[in-house]
Specification:
- By secondary structure, the chain is an alpha/beta fold.
- The longest helix has 13 residues, at 9-21.
- It contains 6 helices and 9 strands.
- The structure holds S-adenosylmethionine.
- Residues 8, 11, 15, 29, 56-58, 60, 78-80, 83, 103-105, 119-121, 124, 161-162 line the site of S-adenosylmethionine.
- S-adenosylmethionine (SAM) binds next to helix 1.
């Protein structure tokens, strides 16, 4: 039984404002091509029939790239309906594209995915209750063999993203937080150059569900 948690209303307002006022090329996490995500997904899901979900997708072009690469079942989820509307306007009602507006700390998934991708969303959950709710959704939305590809700010990374505090992780501390149902299978780092010239240090963690 899932425990009800207080939804992140302040978070939703923040993200609605971000996507309502700034072009995607202006935000610090912008990347013209999500290269690391695409490489890891291709490596761990060579079968293009594998359903993939991008958590906290924002206005990222990842889903579009996956559809272009032949993935046939791609879902994006974000707390901001403005972000999802932007992505939908770009991709359109293309076969295999699915759009969900949801707060990950209150979401009840009704299906499962083979690839769970999250770049810079989980790290905004700074309290245990919201992290637990995310992990409950993750557990309901995956099955044994599903692969998680999660990027957070690294332990020596910035303490804030988009003006909000974040929880920083190494692949090992992230694996420990997600729990024994997920095995750590690959770890790497990435220095992401932001459009304003700063560097965001990311830890990339790949885990497989037991
Ligand atoms: C730093 S942005 C990263 C966007 C995208 N993943 C990328 O790499 O371009 C973080 C995203 O997480 C979303 N987000 C934050 N908290 C969330 C929550 N509780 N549930 C769902 N999405 C959330 C935000 O709306 C935002 O789009």
């Amino acid at each position: 039984m899932r425990r009800a948690v207080t939804p992140q209303d302040a978070g939703k307002d923040h993200w609605q404002k971000v996507y309502g006022t700034r072009a995607e090329t202006e935000v610090s996490w912008y990347q013209p091509r999500p290269a690391r995500s695409l490489e890891l997904i291709a490596a761990y899901a060579p079968d293009r029939a594998t359903p993939a979900i991008d958590i906290g997708a924002g206005a990222s072009t990842l889903a579009q790239h996956l559809l272009d690469a032949g993935y046939g079942d791609v879902t994006v989820v974000d707390i901001s309906e403005t972000a999802i509307a932007r992505t939908r306007a770009r991709i359109g009602d293309r076969k295999g594209a699915h759009y969900i507006v949801a707060d990950m700390t209150a979401w009840m998934p009704d299906r499962r995915w083979g690839i769970w991708h999250d770049r810079a969303a989980f790290h905004f959950l700074t309290d245990t209750q919201h992290q637990d709710a995310y992990i409950a959704a993750l557990t309901e939305a995956t099955e044994p063999g599903s692969v998680l590809i999660i990027a957070t700010f690294a332990l020596d990374g910035l303490e804030k993203c988009s003006g909000l505090p974040v929880r920083r992780y190494s692949p090992e501390t992230l694996a420990a937080r997600l729990g024994p149902a997920f095995d750590l299978v690959e770890a790497s780092r990435e220095d992401h150059p932001t459009p304003s010239g700063l560097v965001q240090r990311f830890a990339w963690t790949v885990l497989r569900r037991r």
